[in-house]
Amino acid sequence: MSTIDYSQKIPNNVNLSSDRTLQRALENWQPNFLNWWGDMGPAGSHQHDVYLRTAVSAEPSGWAHFDHVKMPDYRWGIFLSPQVQERKIHFGEHKGDDVWQEVPGEHRANLRRIIVTQGDTEPASVEQQRHLGLTAPSQYDLRNLFQINVEEGRHLWAMVYLLHRYFGRDGREEADALLERRSGQEDNPRILGAFNEQTPDWLSFFMFTYFTDRDGKFQLCALAESSFDPLARTTKFMLTEEAHHMFVGESGVSRVIARSCELMKQHKVEAPDQVRALGAIDLGTLQRYLNFHYSVTLDLFGADQSSNAATFYSSGIKGRYEEGRRVDDHVLKDMGYKILEVVDGKLVEKEVPMLNALNEVLRDDFIKDSEAGIGRWNKVIEKAGLPFRLTVPHKAFNRQIGSLSGARVAPDGSPISQAQWDANVSKWLPTVADRAYVTSLMGCVNTPGQYANWISAPLVGVNKQPTDMEYVRFN
Amino acid sequence: MNAPAPSVLKQHLIDPVICIRCNTCEETCPIKAITHDSRNYVVDPDICNGCGACISPCPTGSIDNWRNVIKAEAYSLDAQLGWDELPEELELDIAAGNIADEEPGFAPPPLDTARGSTMAPKSAATPSINLHTIRQPAVATVVGNFRVTATDHDSDTHHIVLDFGSQPFPVLEGQSIGIIPPGTDAHGRPHHARQYSIASPRDGERPKYNNLSLTVKRVLVDHRGQPVRGIASNYVCDLQKGDQVKVIGPFGSTFLMPDEPKANLLMICTGTGSAPMRGMTERRRRLHQDGDGQLMLFFGARSQEELPYFGPLMKLPKTFIDINLAFSRTPGQPRTYVQDLMRARAGDIAALLKSDDTYVYVCGLKGMEDGVIDALRYAADQHGLDWRALHPKLKAEGRLHLETY
């Protein structure tokens, strides 16, 4: 059993009260976190009663307890998946050894860096999304946004626990810095580029949760394989929460598509202008948003050749997605992997040592997973009898990181000149006019059971509740 | 003649339209009944036992779909993998009696919270309850404190004897008392009383004296295996002869034994859940005459060294009580739980269950409840008894008592 102790100031299932120094350090950090939430959490939401899911245990039966709570009263805490007895390291050079319960000195700097980078994305996304609540297309969506926000807050707690518990003074300093950086702020930005972009509208939000939170899923999956057992157990539990975020993205975009298709069928129109005239989002705009979020997220996986990635793997810090299910030697010393690079204006495959290409391996796993969901979106269009199909752009399209950085490649993968790029980019990426149009649709729908004109109602409510429930009570 | 009615399966399915293929269910399933390909996540009807562990973790609600199908025609994995959406619900002719309602042995997520009787056996003596309250606790004197698990072992269980002097404290076997540990908690409030089952018969651990005994295990680790010192259990286990203890109670008006010698007692317990069984067994031993009903005991512990009262228990004549010990952590031996032994003795259990004079008692950790009920069902169904009819009958007649914690 991993019952969570809710009698403590900081709910936890790590027996925090037995370590007074750590408990005090985290209790000192807690008011700073709450101040950060007050300043940078969802704007104007602090008095709302929100129908939120709270974990009461790290066992499956306790992940999902639902109740209306005010977000500042949400019980952020520290939850680790139950420990697996006698777990062994299952990849890299330490394969077969016992997993580490403390940080080995030689891996300390790398582990800290990984944890800080992961931790930084959590508050960053809350900051990026803080104004979205004012334009929610329904109570149901507003509730989902808030659920994601509080869970990103909890993921921050998960990383801060590791920093405080295992990294001493520099860990505490890093934990403080996580509350000081700000998304998009010029003099103290968040660490990763995509987390300094704005999330200005709900279509961006759905695309962000579909693509960028999926990057989160793959990073967490890779860390859940880690030889550093507390990190593995922490990320494993975070994955249960991450799944909801991707659900919001996938179902959100799907509902936008469903609504557009419904109106197109009803009024027998297909041209973008005609669809916009009906107050819906045309499928071409959806494709451009998709292209943007997909390509920006691909960059998050890092350079396609990376000696850091090799070190992280060989030393057992970070595995591959579904490491345990792969059938190879899990050391990868003699294996190769094909990456793409631009030679003489052409995209060519090049075989490199797999260890150095592990970022690319994870990126390719992400691509496969993303494509499957896009296939399900296309099912919605197909069902409506419309010929349009969404596609993922080529992975060399619009890249800023790695050997493909700056290469001019069309969404179909053909290399093009700068002039061709300039002439066509407005067909491929959202234009100022596209964004202005989507923004013009955003307006708050507060009545339970009502949905903005550009999005259809969900197929099922939260926790088997009806779709017209009062998910958020405005006080 | 009619052919046997085909049985119906409540088949667990995942809605491919709503599912986002996040893998949470597959990760969660304790028996690996969920699998996937690049298209769908699907549930294997041959493996899924409807435990429901995957339901609440699913972020989408797609997991909570059930279809009544004829078992032989359940949707196969291949069929499910090919779906774009769930098939329409089939109309089955259950009401007309042409199809057996439910596959025996298969239960959808267990919901029946009151699985045991909510009334005492008809012939049970009338219990006294709540004679002493927090405001006016009885004060008992410790007259004995013995360790009843092997001394060379971590598990530390104590047999405590409390004497009430001239204060009235009448109890029955199966009842419990509360002990108030001295001092206050971190918030300066008095500690809550902790409840312990009485391990002695009604006339006292030492007959004709106003005393009773308890079986208390010293708590040194919590449910997760993290070190923690249980406030009350450590206080009780450390009591010295002559110490005074604040006691409230007695409590309990249903988990009581029938007052008739011909009644059979089927007792199933683990660890300190043995306390009420010891009380009842000792009551029957003191009154024993030829022709009395049978006693059958299933008693589980991690190892022989951790089994309270192992020595005294072994001295009881086999003609008086049928003892079955299950050890789940004996080195070099397969893990055996009480329900395993119950299945092995299903025939003898069924013979007892056939008698209207049989009473069933279950006491121990919460986790044992499902397994024990399942083993009872197995014993009944394997030997011509219909558990679905017998279970409510046992409940209604005060003959099935569960006390788990």
Short description:
Chain A is mainly alpha-helical. Chain A has helices at 20-40, 108-128, 139-166, 168-178, 202-223, 229-267, 272-277, 283-299, 307-314, 358-383, 418-428, 432-441; strands at 49-54, 65-70, 336-343, 346-353, 472-473. In chain B, the strands form 4 sheets. Chain B has a 6-stranded antiparallel beta sheet with strand order 8-7-10-5-6-9. In chain B, strands 13-12-11-14-15 form a 5-stranded parallel beta sheet, with helices on both faces.
Description:
The complex is a heterodimer of chains A (475) and B (405). Chain A has twelve helices and five strands. Chain A has 475 residues and is mostly helical. Chain A has a single domain (16-473), classed as Ribonucleotide Reductase, subunit A. In chain A, the strands form two sheets. Chain A has a three-stranded antiparallel sheet. A two-stranded antiparallel sheet of chain A has the order 3-4. The mean pLDDT of chain A is 93. Chain B has 405 residues and is an alpha/beta fold. Chain B folds into three domains: 1-111, Alpha-Beta Plaits; 138-251, Translation factors (Elongation Factor Tu (Ef-tu), domain 3, Beta Barrel), CATH 2.40.30.10; 264-404, Nucleotide-binding domain of ferredoxin-NADP reductase (FNR) module (Rossmann fold). Chain B contains nine helices and 15 strands. Chain B has helices at residues 24-28, 77-81, 231-237, 274-286, 310-314, 338-344, 346-353, 368-382, 387-396; strands at 8-13, 34-36, 41-43, 65-70, 138-147, 157-163, 176-180, 194-197, 211-217, 244-251, 264-270, 295-301, 322-327, 358-364, 400-404. Chain B has a six-stranded antiparallel sheet with strand order 8-7-10-5-6-9. A five-stranded parallel sheet of chain B has the order 13-12-11-14-15, sandwiched between helices. In chain B, a hairpin with a 4-residue loop joins strand 2 (34-36) and strand 3 (41-43). In chain B, helix 6 packs parallel to helix 8 (368-382), helix 7 crosses helix 8 and helix 8 (368-382) packs across helix 9 (387-396). Chain B is globular, with a radius of gyration of 25 Å. The interface between A and B is medium-sized, with 32 and 27 residues.
